[in-house]
Amino acid sequence: MTTAGEPPYAGIARALLVEIEKGVYDSEDLPSEKELAARFNVAHNTARSALKALVNQGILVSERGKGYSLRVYRRADIDVAFHGVGEQAGDAIEVAKLAPPKAVADLLPGATAVVRRRTLGAEPKAAYYLADLIALVPELDDPAPIADPPLLDLLAERGVAVTRLETRVISRMATSWENLPPATTVLESVTALIDDSDTVRAVCVTALPGDSYILKFTQARR
After folding, report:
1. Which member of 36, 43, 49, 190 has the lowest number of beta carbons within 10 Å of its beta carbon?
2. CATH for 40
3. Quick check: is 222 in a domain?
4. Which domain does 52 fall in, by range?
5. Predicted confidence (pLDDT) per residue in 180-199, tens digit
6. pTM higher than 0.85 for the full model?
7. Do 119 and 167 belong to one domain?
């Protein structure tokens, strides 16, 4: 059951995974730590480690007071078109000056510092602005939500005409601040706001949990 050199829990996790894939269990009759320990004649800590290994693989979920259950994926189609930063009155907004992350730095070559405006929540959104844009729109440096007007309209009012949007979608693992279950991938939509001089003026990022959405592509036949 256990391969030479691997910890005892690994073989238990592998055996349990084979049974799950065969449909032996549903969430209601998944064996408990106690049952696994008795079945494989191991300590409770070893059985717990086996179950945690399957949580880390995205097979199980663990809920305080309820134990372990099979992870269920219910996904909806997403529209990756840009609809604005989407701030609402009452949103918790975090504003910070920092070095741009790689996905943003690739679109803002030469930028060493940006202002990040981040909306916290189940599906975090962030927008990254250069200092010259903050000077034109100082509201962007204020943690109060900007619910109206929409971002593109606000920029137009200050003389920044966004004429083109370019969106990239990347898949990555979740970070700790996104507070998602282990082994959850994130679909990160990165949109560059480009003005009439072909300059990227801002970058907006939306992170969507990969276990909740399907990225759908429709192509017209020519």
Report:
1. 43
2. 1.10.10.10
3. no
4. 8-70
5. 777 788 888 899 999 999 99
6. no
7. yes
